[in-house]
Please model this.
Amino acid sequence: MYELKVEGAFEAAHQIKDYPGKCARLHGHNWVVQAVVRGCELDSLGMLIDFKTVKALLGEVLERFDHRYLNELAPFSEGVNPTAEQLARIIYEALAAKAPFAETAAVRLAAITVWESPKSSVTYTPE
Ligand SMILES: Nc1nc2c(c(=O)[nH]1)N=C([C@H](O)[C@H](O)COP(=O)(O)OP(=O)(O)OP(=O)(O)O)CN2
Ligand SMILES: [Zn+2]
Model:
């Protein structure tokens, strides 16, 4: 089994509605996102999947969040709080829907980790 990890990032503002503290106020983070990909078979180049491919796909997913006020974007505009947990799941689902993850079980998106700060992160893995 090979496990490949790629990181992306975006900058965005948010507020956690009903949070009992300062995070209820508008503030921003430099979000860092890590995708973990697993599989057993290597291609003719000896790669599970090219880092560049995963980086580009992750970049496409993160683009919609970059330099945005997250609470204005769906599904956060519909009452879902833009927590690191919700972001990790939403990013996972968007990336997993892209080829090659959607097309074959040989290269599997295993997890997405979202860091709000260097010391605070959430990892989503589908059960
Ligand atoms: N489980 C979660 N807890 C919190 C989340 C979250 O998404 N999931 N989010 C927040 C706020 O967004 C907050 O901005 C981050 O809080 P915190 O890590 O405390 O960040 P600070 O840099 O402000 O840390 P201090 O130690 O207070 O300086 C809160 N919790
Ligand atoms: Zn925050």
Observations:
- The beta strands are 2-14, 27-39, 68-69, 108-117, 120-124.
- Residues 87 and 114 are 7 Å apart (CA to CA).
- The chain has one domain: 2-124.
